[in-house]
Amino acid sequence: ASRFGLKTISEISYEAPLTEEVLTSCVAVAWTRSSSLNIPEQRDNDLEAQLIAFAEKSVHDMALVSEGLELALSVSSEYIVWGVGEAALKLLALPALNSREAVAYVDGNPTRWGFRFGGVPVMAPSSISSGSTPIIACSFIRANSIVEAACRLGLINPIVRLDL
After folding, report:
1. How far is CA 77 from CA 4, 34, 101, in A?
2. Which residues pair with 23 in a beta bridge?
3. Cβ neighbours, 10 Å, residue 162
4. Which of 79, 106, 109, 139 supports an S-S bond with 83, CB 3.0-4.6 Å?
């Protein structure tokens, strides 16, 4: 950070549960621009508590999503992931998904096609076979567009949203 003219003013690191069985490392760092001005540093005494509260809420929200996925997939041993972004990568660590088999990864972004997760390729949405395998709409932001695209493709698969 110093090579960019930044000075660390606060740093905390801790482990937080992603699920009951999986811990994840968390780091929060605050910087200020180094300056030739002699301005007294003031510590934001609320920042650390706010960051910890945010992390705790994120863990709580992820637990709710995990419970919802477990319920939605209770009769399925396989699933399809639609949307291979940040949310999908977090969700794949959850027991609800890692205890079942992903049979396809789908994304509307052609630059992701051909990537593989556990040997399973990322494909175009038009590659999905209509059937009973649940489709996980792995986006909090674009879930509606995933549902609409699945309807346009005539898919009859159940669609599981993260905003259960």
Report:
1. 49, 55, 6
2. 17
3. 21
4. 139
CA gyration radius for the chain?
20
Tens-place pLDDT, residues 16-68: 877 667 777 888 888 887 665 565 667 778 888 898 899 899 888 888 999 99
Q: Are 1 and 14 in contact (CB under 8 A)?
A: no
Please state the length of the chain.
164
Domains and CATH numbers, the chain: 67-161 (3.40.50.720)
DSSP the chain: -GGGTEEEEEEEEEEEESSSS-EEEEEEEEEEE--SS-PPP---TTHHHHHHHHHHHHHHHHHHHHHHHHHHTTT-SEEEEE--SHHHHHHTTSHHHHTSEEEEEE-S-GGGTT-EETTEEEE-GGGPPPSSS-EEE--SSSHHHHHHHHHHTT--S-EEES--
**Rounded Cα distance, 158 and 136, in Å:** 9
How far apart CA 91 and CA 77 sit, in angstroms, is: 16
With a threshold of 0.90, does the pTM exceed it? Answer: no
Joined tokens for residue 42: 């003031």
